[in-house]
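Hi, here's the filled form for the chain we discussed.

Project: internal
Contact: R.S.
Residues: 97
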Amino acid sequence: MHKITGFHPLIGIYLCLEREGTDTMDWLTSIKASIQYMEDHLLEDISVTNIAVEVGISQFYLQQGFKVMTGYTISEYLRNRKLISFHSGKVRPLPTR
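And the returned structure, exactly as it came back:
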């Protein structure tokens, strides 16, 4: 894959997806589905690989697209959501290993 420079990151991802024949709406749907998957499995030990397999998108596009759309990395998002849920009393802390 060639790195595209000089554009907003979302445009670069769009152009790469278009070159590979991937529908952009499918990609956006996959990013939204990844958020839903993370919310549904918030207390589980999930990885980018788990999420990418579940929503059917490559880890690269998932990580890049997620950062562009949310401003957070996936690990930052998960950490923040777990902290917010814990502090709001909606979830109990995970047992230590």
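Let me know if anything looks off before we file it.
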